[in-house]
């Protein structure tokens, strides 16, 4: 086991409804899933940590489960970050090429020029994602090293988040005895797991519907062009069921999972469901179509907000391959069909791909982010950035190091 342990990568999806740790072993043939641990999450609201103690307890529980299944000790994780505070900006930078041939120093300088934008003190750069390079008016270049030219331009997508939110995630992991190898935007991780290269090339919109937030990422020409987060998710659906059917939240969640449907056409007229009541009253029997009447408008509202973001990005005509929905809440019956009606585009559910090992265990949209974090980690293995031993303020100084790492990994 010790030989394999060196190649283990752990993705920690810190979500609003569940905290999930997935252990992957990187082999020559790809990534094998060897362990998984999941624990209900109570310390987050809309993707942001609001109670460190509860979050630490949930992280510990999920890590212990994953360690037991994988038969290893977990020291370092790739942690996901989400929440309404996440903002994405497109930026570009231009430099003169020193020796008429692009070298690594030129690429570093042009990325530095592209990220030289005004970012408020309370925000931190989480990712700098290159879209394309342009050399002397020749655009669409992905790999500029070694090319001849006079002028080098880079177009990048910069993702920023609230420093405090990122710090609280690192702090929670540190208190659970873990190093954080990197903080990764959740929809970027999910995209690694569920999107094919062809879809990214042709243009696709990824919609990751979690418990507290819905994360959006648009890819065109193989590069990420737009990211956004909507503070609406599966918890709002559960809440609507609890209020509409007058049933406790825990029961409402069960009803949503077992009987939920958001398209009336898919529900039979005589289908019935049993609804437990509050305060010890007798359970009632209701038509399943009543549940559909509650969920339908809320899901429609969610997809309308997503559609608004797609229009806002100005890329609605560029996403030729359509929309991919993933995340735990996308399992709801009728979601792809309802989404197709609202987006007027082909829609499919996204399941984790490109993996081996315990595929049947993670073969659900709910695990897309966790699996994606492992795939991201396997491509971006670099020096640890947020070790538990360092001061928790070290997150402020990581941006430059992250750039150097990115630069080493990207080329």
CATH class of the domain at 197-350 reads Alpha Beta
Radius of gyration: 22 Å
At the fourth CATH level, what is the homologous superfamily of the domain at 197-350?
ATPase, nucleotide binding domain
CATH architectural type of the domain at 197-350: 2-Layer Sandwich
User: What fold name goes in the CATH topology slot of the domain at 197-350?
Assistant: Nucleotidyltransferase, domain 5
Which segments are poorly predicted (pLDDT under 50) over 5 or more consecutive residues? 389-396
Q: How helix-rich are the residues, as a percent range?
A: 25-40%
- Name the average pLDDT: 90
Strand content: 25-35%
Order of strands, widest sheet: 11-6-1-2-3-19
Count of helical stretches:
13
Spatial separation of the terminal alpha carbons? 31 Å
Number of strands: 19
Helix-strand category:
alpha/beta
Q: Give a short account of the largest sheet.
A: 6 strands, mixed
What shape does the CA trace take? globular
């Amino acid at each position: 086991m010790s030989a394999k342990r060196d190649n283990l990568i752990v993705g920690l999806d810190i979500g609003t409804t569940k905290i999930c740790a997935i252990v992957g072993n990187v082999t020559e043939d790809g990534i094998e899933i060897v362990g998984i641990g999941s624990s209900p999450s109570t310390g987050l609201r809309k993707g942001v940590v609001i109670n460190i103690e509860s979050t630490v307890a949930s992280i510990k529980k999920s890590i212990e489960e994953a360690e037991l299944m994988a038969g290893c000790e977990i020291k370092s994780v790739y942690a996901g970050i989400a929440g309404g505070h996440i903002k994405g900006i497109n930026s570009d930078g231009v430099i003169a090429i020193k020796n008429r041939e692009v070298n690594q120093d030129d690429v570093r300088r042009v990325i530095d020029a592209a990220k030289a934008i005004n970012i408020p003190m309370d925000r931190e750069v989480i990712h700098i994602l290159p879209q394309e390079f342009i050399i002397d008016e020749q655009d669409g270049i992905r790999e500029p090293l070694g090319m001849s030219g006079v002028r080098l331009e880079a177009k990048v997508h910069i993702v920023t988040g609230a420093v405090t939110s990122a710090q609280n995630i690192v702090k929670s992991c540190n208190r659970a005895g873990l190093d954080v190898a990197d903080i990764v935007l959740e929809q970027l991780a999910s995209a690694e797991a569920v999107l094919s290269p062809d879809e990214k090339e042709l243009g696709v919109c990824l919609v990751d519907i979690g418990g507290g937030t819905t994360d959006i990422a648009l890819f065109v020409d193989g590069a990420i062009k737009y990211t956004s987060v909507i503070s609406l998710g599966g918890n709002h659906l559960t809440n609507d069921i609890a209020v509409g059917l007058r049933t406790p939240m825990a029961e409402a969640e069960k009803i949503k999972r077992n009987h939920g449907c958001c398209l009336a056409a898919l529900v039979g007229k005589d289908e019935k469901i049993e609804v437990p009541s509050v305060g010890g009253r007798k359970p009632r029997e209701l038509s399943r179509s009543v549940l559909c009447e509650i969920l339908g408008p809320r899901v429609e509202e969610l997809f309308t907000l997503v559609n608004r973001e797609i229009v806002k990005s100005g890329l609605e005509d560029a996403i030729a391959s359509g929309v991919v929905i993933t995340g735990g809440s996308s399992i709801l019956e009728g979601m792809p069909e309802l989404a197709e009606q609202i987006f007027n585009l082909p829609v499919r559910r996204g399941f984790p791909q490109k993996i081996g090992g315990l595929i049947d265990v993670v073969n659900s949209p709910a695990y897309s982010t966790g699996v994606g974090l492992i795939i991201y980690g396997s491509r971006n293995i670099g020096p640890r950035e947020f070790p538990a031993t360092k001061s928790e303020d070290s997150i402020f100084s990581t941006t430059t190091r992250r750039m150097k790492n990115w630069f080493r990994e990207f080329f």
